Amino acid sequence: MSTATASDWVTANQRYLSAALEVTKRRLAGGRDEAGMREAEQALASARAALPALPALDRLRIIFGLTDFETELLLLCAGVELDSGMAALCAAAHGDPQRYRPTIGLALALLPAAHWSAVTPTAPLRHWRLIELAEGEPLATAPLRIDERVLHYLLGVATVDRRLQPLLRLLAPAAVLPPSHRQLAERIAALWEETSDPPPVQICGGDSFSRQAIAAAVGEQLGRAVYVLRAEDLPGEAAEQETLARLWEREAALSGALALVAIGDGEAPRALLHWLERVQGTVLLASADPLPASDRLMVRVDVPQPDRAEQRSLWQQILGERSVALNGQLEPLLAQFTLNANAIRAVGLATMTDQTTDWWEACRTQARLRLDGLAQRIETVVGWDDLVLPEEHMATLRQMAAHVRQRARVYEQWGFGRRGERGLGISALFAGPSGTGKTLAAEVLANELRLDLYRIDLSAVVSKYIGETEKNLRRIFDAAEGGGAVLLFDEADALFGRRSEVKDSHDRYANLEVSYLLQRMEAYRGLAILTTNMKQAIDAAFLRRIRFIVNFPFPDSAQRRRIWQRVFPPETPLAELDWARLAQLNLAGGNIRSIALNAAFLAADAGEPVCMRHILSAARSEYAKLEKPLTETELRGWG
């Protein structure tokens, strides 16, 4: 209906309802005034003829399959709320001015085609909560009341049940949607249109915004509003779940709305699985993971990743003429970042007022939003000059940087990516004793590539519960895909080990966890790095699946000297330091940095530049921490 037609219908519908109430009111009065009854019935017929579409009362009757008596009883309850004269008639019939609400006994006595079954719990009036019965009184004399949402519907007022309002959020259609996502929405809409008893549909994978945008497009295809209901807001008690299921089913029947149950990261609440067994009708579910198998028939669809052409189109549609201002920067952005329409819009807003804003940095900021809550982001400011390693190791690290920079050209333009995703991920293993520069090397690579570095503590990711480790890893990789961040899985020994002989289910699942991590690393579009202090404990079969392996050696004297010469920032005031003597301290780079920092504090507190005695004092503290003695060889010449 057009806006004008809808407005005309509301006015005509309310005239029709008033005329219908007048007929019921005369029946309540006993129908003694036959001329008045005929006049009321003629007015009702005239009001019906003036309607541009079915009145709300008829729609309600058709939707819920009401009998003539049930319809009259509903009108009687509505009349008490809308007409004080009808309330007075009810009170007079009961012989008590306080009992102004109708009862089933009164209705059975005065309304035509009356039947007791109209108020049984399974009959439409009570099953759909169209009327409410006061509790604690005999059924025949219990006051009846029309539900507020139903009363608004009869009046033609568009609203949502007040009990549902705190739980629901109206989902606005997405202005821009990738073609692959729109096609998925069309498939779901076609499934429901062609099925007499449509099953719930799970929209799995992708990010939360994309899942909801697809659901909104389904509603758009069907011409129905979509409301989001968070899974964690579902009640846990069976009675409350039943009530919510009936209220939503009624709301969907009255307004044609669709429910989208949004499931957050992690396991679906048990209440959701129980609620789905109770609720009927068209329901969408949006989650990163599919729901556990159940007896309820459900259809699962997976959200596809937008390809490069779709990404380019999204940028151009959202930015419009401003996309020209990217001036050749768009292709590198597309090669590195996979952003949804919401994130692209945020990048556009962030760069709108400052034309000098770095588009790469704006994308990087948006891409990190999903990952910040799952891993520790490390700010990277170090460069190649801060890293002291043998030349062949430095060459391998530079190769890794080249692989990340050129992967779009090699995989897409040169065709290597057309052979499948396996093996395309850039994975690396950094092995060596603590403090030899493994984390520092990851920082250098991230800084060189202008990417975020996230440290993931595998000991915190690994779970004793079967399947949970894979879920934790999946969330991390899925969140990182949008920006291709550098992922540093620290202390990989928590997960890796020699492939154990499978003696029980825990051994089997432990191997599956390792295989899943390597599988995701092989498919990850960014750089994923594992670190370990015990390379010898990792199965050779796993090592073969890692593209780069860098062994970080304990630094020799010459390397330690270079580390000492670079460890102090240029701003630090230094006395004459003996680099050769400092290099005698048999320590890894991490320990050297710790000593340098401690010495700087000692010197600052003394109001002096850093000198050898400050470093010696700091070294003694570091050795004590390591539970190692300072040898005569290390102290030779210190005085």
Helices and strands, with pairings:
Elements: H1 3-28, H2 34-49, H3 56-64, H4 68-82, H5 84-94, H6 104-110, H7 124-127, E1 131-133, E2 144-146, H8 148-154, E3 168-170, H9 179-193, E4 201-204, H10 208-222, E5 226-230, H11 238-255, E6 258-262, H12 270-278, E7 283-287, E8 299-302, H13 308-319, H14 330-336, H15 341-350, H16 359-367, E9 376-378, H17 391-413, E10 426-431, H18 438-449, E11 453-457, H19 458-461, H20 468-481, E12 486-490, H21 505-523, E13 527-532, H22 540-543, E14 548-551, H23 557-567, H24 579-583, H25 589-606, H26 612-626, H27 632-635
Parallel strand pairs: 4-7, 4-8, 5-6, 6-7, 10-13, 10-14, 11-12, 12-13
Antiparallel strand pairs: 1-2, 3-5, 9-11
Structure description:
The chain has 639 residues and is an alpha/beta fold. The chain is built from 27 helices and 14 strands. The strands form 3 sheets. The chain has a 6-stranded mixed β-sheet with strand order 3-5-6-7-4-8, with helices on one face. Strands 9-11-12-13-10-14 form a 6-stranded mixed β-sheet, sandwiched between helices. Strands 1-2 form a two-stranded antiparallel sheet. Helix 4 (68-82) packs across helix 5 (84-94) and helix 15 (341-350) crosses helix 16 (359-367). The longest helix has 26 residues, at 3-28. The model is unreliable at 498-507 (pLDDT under 50).
